[in-house]
User: What shape does this take?
Amino acid sequence: MNIAFYLTPKEEVVWIAEDSTLRQALEKMEYHRYTAMPLVNKEGKYAGTITEGDLLWSFKRSPDLRFKDLHKLRIKDLPRHQDNEPVSINSQIEDLIPLAVSQNFIPVVDDQQNFIGIVKRSTIIDYLYNTLIAYKCG
Assistant: This one.
């Protein structure tokens, strides 16, 4: 089944611009209680994923960094451990299962590589559960 049925659209996704500051990322993650967020560039393209771990490692690598200076650092300049692999809106839900093993969300892009939303791991698990139930009952 096409993932469009399972998409959480960009308008409903908590994401952050890649030129945002480290402080903005921390505040947004704290407010929403998220451990990772998609990064979107000025052109609206998916630019990667920022995680709490990326932010923490940045602090560790910068012992002189003070909280009051976090507005000086841009997220796009931080090293990231791993970016969630995006998929095309034309993908099938079954194709996302291997990605969901290591990603809590899968970024979705259109044919021009514009970020259009995500498919959550919980949505994929729900799909698998319902498929399993239907199989057992069928």
The chain has one domain: 3-137. The longest strand covers residues 46-51. Strands lie at 8-9, 16-17, 36-40, 46-51, 87-88, 105-109, 115-120. The chain is about 30% helix and 20% strand.
